[in-house]
Amino acid sequence: xxxxxVLSEIGVGLRRNLTMTFAVIVSVALSLALFGGxxxxxxxxxxxxxxxxxxxxxxxxxxNKNDAAAGGTCDKGAVTAQQKKEIEGDLAKLDTLVEKxxxxxxxxxxxHYKEQYGDTAIASIITPDQMQESYRVKLKDPEQYKVxxxxxxxxxxxxxxxxxxxxxxxxxxxxxxMNVAALxxxxxxxxxxxxxxxxxxxxxxxxxxxxxxxxxxxxxxxxYIQMPFIMEAAVAxxxxxxxACGMLLVGRYFMxxxxxxxxxxxxxxxxIGWDAVVTVLPLVVVIGLLMPSLAAAIALRKYLxx
Length: 306
Known about the structure:
Helix content is 67%, strand content 8%. The protein has helices at 2-16, 18-53, 81-93, 106-117, 145-152, 165-207, 209-217, 222-257, 262-265, 274-303; strands at residues 58-62, 98-104, 134-139, 158-163. Helix 1 (2-16) crosses helix 8 and helix 6 (165-207) runs parallel beside helix 10.
């Protein structure tokens, strides 16, 4: 009988404040969708780091005859056979750090350049002797880049040492910035949702003050009187959480599998799978259920004196 009464009160409360309940559902859904999206974005950055850092190389560019005019470490001219032998010997000594070394000649570098930029205007005036020989060093641990840089940067015959991770780091930095922006918007939407929940509880408590007064007179406990109001907020939050889950699923499908079809248009990017999305959904639903409930319970202490 008590359970039936509580459920009926929940239905009455939701119907009386239908517009505000709808606003709560939308606000909770948007804030939780942004929260889930931020979690997925962080997971995407982690997946891309693991995927790309496992493939990037440390490149040791060697001096050619055209670099001598620029001065610096190449002021003595192009790299000599003896200098290349010394570099190869030092790389061999770093076998605990180095997984694989590939020597790219100037002709190979020119061929790769033409394959990638053959349609550009500058490609027509580039000649093989202008390209730099290089050693592409695959490290067992990409974080040990500084060891290679310290060992080879600045020595005779070496033009520069480049860590390809730096190029990727700019992309990851941008994605982290987008993640922070999403979290800021999520926090704003969360504040709006909590304000709507508190206001909804206040209006609901005021509209039913006669019923709660009668319940107090007949000896009903504080918990029993407050339960319908808390459950109303919980139902609205749960619906918002479910809508947020739907938004995350639809977003993942249309952005990666269909619509924008990023999976095919960007084949070199390792996108997160459905398992990552499904893992986030229970957390979104739980937060959607608990957050409004706690907000309602706190609000009731002020607006419903029992």
